[in-house]
Amino acid sequence: MVAKETVGCNLCGESSSFALFHGSDRRHPLPGIFTMIRCRACGHVYLSPRPAPSSIGMYYPDTYSPYTRQPGWLGIATRWMRRREARSLSRLVAPGAHVLEVGCASGDLLRELRACGLHASGVEFNARVAADAREHHGLDITAGTVADVTGEAVFDMVVMRNVIEHVPSPRDDIHHIRGLLGPNGLLLLSTDNLDSWDRRVFGPCWYGYDMPRHFNLFSPQSLERLLNAEHFTVERVSFSLVPTHWLVSSRYWLEDRGLKGRWLEFLLSSRNLPAVAALLPLTFVQRLARTGGRMSLLARKAA
Description:
Blueprint (H helix, E strand, L loop, with lengths): L3 E2 L11 E7 L10 E6 L5 E3 L2 E2 L20 H19 L7 E5 L5 H8 L3 E6 L2 H11 L2 E4 L11 E7 L8 H11 E12 L4 H6 L13 E2 L2 H10 L2 E9 L2 H13 L6 H6 L5 H16 L5 E8 L2
Parallel strand pairs: 6-7, 6-9, 7-8, 9-10
Antiparallel strand pairs: 1-5, 2-3, 3-4, 4-11, 10-13, 12-13
């Protein structure tokens, strides 16, 4: 039996809410029915009840994609994107700056940040994945959560890529990160965009909900409110090209209507290069319209 916990809104603290829909783990065939709800006071969307700390680990099996190396063209593309991302981040800080990545998984980005001349370290809650990265790549990775990273004003930048939606208390984590950052330190957050076109089209079938791993869902406005409340100033909001959201959300929609099979899993996945390429123009328009499936907010620690 899956242990669950009921929680209130992490943004405003209110407990009054209403259910949006019920769902299960679509990515892995694991047990449990969960409810996505909306806060009546501030409109924040979050999961409650959700897996309790004693149960959440089972929803991150060894086959969870961030823990695996992608094969073929997808692996090549991923490594190219991480290298490009690291170079972009390195331009935001001084040479030799200290950077922490929260939820660094197997350390793909950390390796590229290190290659850019930065002092890069990470924290990863999956102890096995963290140990493998330390052993095979010599990376400085702590097993645990950001709360396990100690010190005051020890980092110039903290990076959270697709992590804030997973943590039990985004407010507590951002508050802790503020203490880890030095004066004028930077925080880069990326997460799925609740205000995206793909979420509006697919509703409960949207890939970005990823129940029950995603505890909190954000729009650009709600995430900026949270950052402002924790004394960060948002300097930039950008949007990514995410054709995978359209592909996998389409598959979920068809599966809900009885159409299933391995052929469908391949056809509507990131492994299908022609399908990915066909959707790039749409996702490019999304980015121009600032309604992309994934957003990144760059924020600076306020004085």
